[in-house]
Structure formats: C-alpha cells, structure tokens
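Most newcomers find our protein records easier to grasp once they have seen one. To make this concrete, we reproduce a full record directly below:

…
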Amino acid sequence: MTNDAQPRTQWLGRWGFVLAATGSAVGLGNVWKFPYMTGEYGGGAFVLVYLACILALGVPVMMTEIALGRRGRGSPIDAIRRVTAESGGRSPWSLLGWMAMACGFMILCFYVVVAGWSFSYLWKMLSGGLAGTSVDDMAAIFGANNANPFNLGFWSTLVTIITMLIVGKGVQAGIEKSVSWMMPGMVLMLLIMIVYGAFSGGFGDALHFLFAFNAGSLSSEGMLAAMGHAFFTLSLASGAILTYGSYLPRDASIGRTTLTVAVADTLVALMAGLAIFPVIFANGMEPGSGPGLIFMSLPLAFQAMPLGTLFGILFFVMLSMAALTSSISMVEATVSWLTDNKGISRRTAAWGTGIVLWIISTLAMLSFNVGADWTLAGKHFFDWLDYLTSRWMMPLGGLGVVLLAGFVLNSEVMREELGLSPVMHALWLFMVRYVSPLGIVVIFLDALGIATLEFAVQWPWLLLALAVITLIGEITSPRLKRTLCA
C-alpha cells in the first residue's frame, strides 16, 4: 500500500460504486448514439463486435483506472503519483492525472450546455411549448432555444448549480445518495416506455433494427465505431472512474465490479433503443442521429401518440437524470484534488469549481448565439472543447494509463490490487500491454483522420497477430512463468 494516502471516505457498499460508475457511463450519448449505431451497422453483429471491444479495450482500461484509484486513494494526480512512487517510478507520470482531471473538467464545460437542452425540453414538455406539426417546426424550436443566450444560459446554469449541490454534500450523502435513486428511476422509466412501445405497433421494427444479425452491414467504419464507443462510453481517461475507484472499499472485487458496470451500461443503452425506436417507427419516421432524433423527431412523435405528453415528460426526466449522473462524475476529480491538497472544505471546493465552470461554460454556450462568429481555425469555443478532449486528451490519457500499468509499475503492485487469479492476471497484463494500446492508437489515428478506415481496421489484426506471438514468447520466459505460478 502507498504510505502517504490520507484516510478517505468510501462508498457505503460495492453497489454505490456500481451505480455511480454506471451513471457516469450512461450519458446523453448512450440514449441515442449506441442504439442508432447498433441498427446502422448490422444490429446483432455490431453488438457482438461491440461486446468484444468492451472486453478487449474497455474492461481492462477500466480495471486499471479503478485499481490505480483505490491503490493511491486520491484524486487522479495524487493516486498516480503515489502508485508510481511505490514502484520506484518517476513523478512526471503524475502528468497523466493532471490531463485526466483537466479533460473531465473541459468536457463538463460544454456538457452542461448540452445537458441544459434536456432540462429546457422537459420544461417545454410540461408547459406545452413543443407544439409543432413537422420536423422543420421542431428544428425551428430547437434553433430558437439555442439562439437565446438568456434561455440557454439559464438552463446550463441550473445544471451547474444542481451538480455542485450534489457534489458539495460529499461522496455518501451527495453522490451515492443521489445515484441510488436516479439510476433505478431511470431504468424504471425506460421499462415503462418499453412496455408502452411493445403495444405501439412499432416494436417489431425496433427489434429488427436493433438486433437483426446483418453481418453484411458491419463495415470497417462500423468496427471502428464499435471500438471507439467501447472506449468512450465507460467514461475512461477523464478522471471520473479513477476518482470513483479511490472510494472503493478494499474488499470489493475490481474484476466483478468492472464487468457489472460494463454490462449495466450496455443494457441501459439497449433499453434506451427499445424505448425510443418503437415510438419512431410507429409514427412512420426514419431513425436519425444526434440532437435531431432526441430534440426534433421524438417530440413530434410524442404529440401523435396517446398519452404522448406523459411519456414525453417521462423521457425528458430520464434524459435529465442521465445528464446529471454524468456531470457529477466529471467534476468529482477536481473537487477531490482541491479538498485533498488545498485544505478547503468539500462545499467550498464544489462552489469554487462551480464558479469557474459557469464562466467557461458560458463561453461555450455563447457559441450557439451571440458568439457564433467567434471562431478559431473554423471552430467555435464549444467545438474546441469537444475536439481537444475527445480527439486528443482522452485517447492519449488512456494510452498513458495502460502503458504505465503494463510496463512501468511493479507487477506485484497491480496483482495485489486487482486480486485476480494467476491466469486472469496474466490475461489482464497481456491486454493492457498489447491489445488495449493498439486499440487506442487506432481510435486516435482514425479520429485525427491520419489513417483511412480500411487501413485502421486491417492493421489491428496484423498487430494483434504479432502481439499473440509476443505473448507466447513471454509465457515461455521465466518472468511470466513466475507470474503465472505465484
């Protein structure tokens, strides 16, 4: 164990972490992006590839982040510094913690604006402000919603205030208590909408769209989409999971906990598809992607269905809760660092962070209205936050974490923390040393447009073959033999 970690608040139980981590993973993107990609790229075939990518890429990286957090018992910066020092490594590796913390905060700076859309549409649904007869009418409402800086600013400010109220109350009284009802509440609302969808007339089309095994539709683009979404959906490399891991009790199994979160995240995403697409198909609409599906097509469909207002309210309540569970996780790393290192109370740290967040998120919000002409290299401030975090900081941070765990840290440290059987530990070590880095590099190159889709998909299989050969070599070496037999 690291010897300079201070006593740290812990989740009341393993399920507190599972609910919090799942809430972090289940964000606005899961509600539309994963179900849409599933139908677009081959249904059941895409799901199988996605699950393989979750196991090969998402789960090993998530296990590593949780183990680093629990071992170091601190914010991403402190945890990585402590664990690296325990293995005799150099302090510059703590830069990974700085990048993860900055990444999560930068994501939140534009995420609260998007989350504000959910709260805004919940109010419109309650007040009857979503009256329209066509998708063009709904598009006009969406455009007007963003064009008014006072309206958009009010809702993003509300998201910021609610987030800081929850985080300021602490790990158990704030985060764990809130997700303990928000996550079950979200699942309950999804189940209600699925039951309704089963009798809507579009459920069969939705099932076919999501689960028909159409391998011919699984292109190289679809395989890359599965790989990329498997990495990003679990909130990896943003400081959230590593910080949540620092509150995990010592007796909780990291392997079982990680698998539970990965399965729960996937199930919620599929449930969202079964809740949304029956409504879309029953009303003769084409499934779209992005804000168009959630904020234009669906509100129009709700108007045409019996009890549509009620189900529209349920849907946007669920969407707002998904937004909050993610925003809570993204700010926790910053608040944790401030309380650990600056000697200030959690409440003060939360509200201080909230003020900075509000200022930066206001600049991101203005990208949609009065600041629409404020661009740099063709990108607005909102776009730059998204570009820097998703294209650069998250892939590089994830790559750094697996390289640190696979090649720098003492293998005894991670073996003790993970608590895996010798065979499973050897498999984890193989994944973080070879498979996960290759997958992350492919995602990174494709996101930057450096590699063509065909090149990016073909090379992993060639490199994976080389990795297997390397694994065979390592198994025959005395070092890995000792690991397997210990």
